[in-house]
UniProtKB/TrEMBL annotation:
Function recorded in the entry: Bifunctional enzyme that catalyzes the epimerization of the S- and R-forms of NAD(P)HX and the dehydration of the S-form of NAD(P)HX at the expense of ADP, which is converted to AMP. This allows the repair of both epimers of NAD(P)HX, a damaged form of NAD(P)H that is a result of enzymatic or heat-dependent hydration.
PROSITE patterns cross-referenced by the UniProt entry: YJEF_C_2, YJEF_C_3, YJEF_N
Cofactor(s) required, per the database record: Mg(2+); K(+)
UniProt keyword annotation of ATP-binding present: yes
Domain YjeF N-terminal as annotated: residue spans: 10-218
Family: Belongs to the NnrE/AIBP family. In the N-terminal section; belongs to the NnrE/AIBP family.
Cross-referenced InterPro entries: Carbohydrate_kinase_pred_CS, CARKD, Nnr, Ribokinase-like, YjeF_N_dom, YjeF_N_dom_sf
Record-given protein name: Bifunctional NAD(P)H-hydrate repair enzyme
UniProt superkingdom: Bacteria
UniProt domain YjeF C-terminal: residue ranges: 228-499
Amino acid sequence: MPKILSVKQLYAADTATVKKNDISFIDLMEHVGTLCFQWIHDRLQGDPITIQIFCGTGNNGGDGLVIARHLKQYGYNVKTHIINCGNDRSEVFLKNYDRLKEIGVWAEMITCESELPAVSENDMVVDAIFGLGLSRKPENLIKKVIEHINGSNAFVLSIDFPSGLYAEKSVTDTVSVVKAYHTLTFQTPKLAFLLPENRYYTKTWEVLDIGLDAEYIYNAKTDNYLLYKQDIKPMYRFREKFSHKGEFGHAVIIGGSYGKMGAVTLSTKAAISIGSGLVTAHIPQCGYQIIQTSVPEIMVEVDAENEMQKFDININATVIGIGVGMGTHIETVKGFTEFLNKNKVPLVLDADALNIISKNKELLKLVPENSVLTPHPKEFERLVGKWKNDYDKLKKLRSLSKKHKIIIVLKGAYSAIAHEGALFFNSTGNPALSTAGSGDVLTGIITGLIAQNYHPFEAAKMGVYLHGKTSELAMKTKVYETFIASDIIDYLSSAIMDLLMKEPKVVPQKEAESKNDKKAKPDEGTEMYI
Ligand SMILES: NC(=O)C1=CN([C@@H]2O[C@H](COP(=O)(O)OP(=O)(O)OC[C@H]3O[C@@H](n4cnc5c(N)ncnc54)[C@H](OP(=O)(O)O)[C@@H]3O)[C@@H](O)[C@H]2O)[C@@H](O)CC1
Ligand SMILES: [K+]
């Protein structure tokens, strides 16, 4: 599972690599810079645009100088600038400065504002000012350089980090951070990239495997992970030939109120669509016909006329998803409180169930261990109060989940799943999911997975992953705006198929060409799945 390592661990990985792998730091930097050069070269293919490389005087700047040298040697139109960041220059920065000189290139020093080079919007900027070593907010000349880059409208590629962005704490001066278009970050994902407060500093990013010591990374302890397909796929359980619906549990969804029956409809439909053996909706009477007609595959139990009051469930439920569209009517609050006092079944709590708990936090003590809470940020704020910044928010998330031994899915662009003090960030999804009912569907998916005996932690991770994946797969025929919550359910099959599909074999370009440009295809038939 991709670990998100701390700055300290990354420097230690660096040292371990040099120590154990018989490679000098200058060679490691050469390797890293070459990978970045290759990334650029693969995309530009010799394009004669101007590439302006801005270097600091630490090792991030050293990476920039390696990139500059390789680009120059491949005939690119490169302008290299060094920003005077003080008297310290790292040893490998200086070595690479000399290597650049050896091929006849003198990097321009920027020592004052009047020396800022003109940058056109047609240029490409490589930002190699600061990386892991940023120790304070950029000021004076460096801030001016960053503002100059940001004002240029050029395509900005940041090396390791957008300069000015801290790896593990909040930015204090939002204008002294490079606004990258893309960032090539080294070895592991960085926590900073997953936080909404840093949304403007890099539109996209990717991890370059720079070959840091695998043993160190394997043994490194962390509480932050980014979930990819390879982490979810092994959880999937194939159905046996003789299996029957009784083996796949009974999910109950409690919720709905007059005018909000759509939420339960979506939740129950998602629960049955993800494979729950049986699904029952426990709803107010006003929604009876609506839900029976909309989701004929499920059963229905009714409560009071227009909102939930009695919570009198007559089913042997495997799991109960509760709260969607439920409202916070005084009788609902009363009934819900009594329900929590009696209930022993694992829960998935969403929407109004969370809103009611927010007003009486003592209720959290009644939530069974390993239940799943699925708040969006506003609901989470109601539960834990305001946070100072996104790092503080994550701290609150870990601590609430740990304190009550529950799993919390904090929804967002990188939904964070908190379990036993650790955070697991989801990597799938896009803004199409910002649509009404999207959360109701997620509640149904997680509930339906728990019904099938997936551990609630597994169900949360797999549910969030698949939910996100549907939005990616749908973009072949839809756009963000036209994607609606029902589409998530419609695309669940595709998301599961995608999960099980073997990755196409990557054929090196030369080999592919020699085979008459045949593209690598996924294996066919039963071999398609593993
Ligand atoms: N990890 C790896 O495995 C590998 C890492 N590699 C690369 O190394 C990068 C890390 O390099 P790094 O440690 O030299 O730090 P870097 O970001 O260049 O800056 C440090 C310099 O900037 C200065 N400085 C800081 N803030 C400042 C400010 N606001 N205003 C002014 N000055 C400021 C700071 O000064 P000081 O704080 O000491 O006063 C120091 O002089 C990493 O991101 C990656 O690109 C790869 O090449 C190889 C594998
Ligand atoms: K940088």
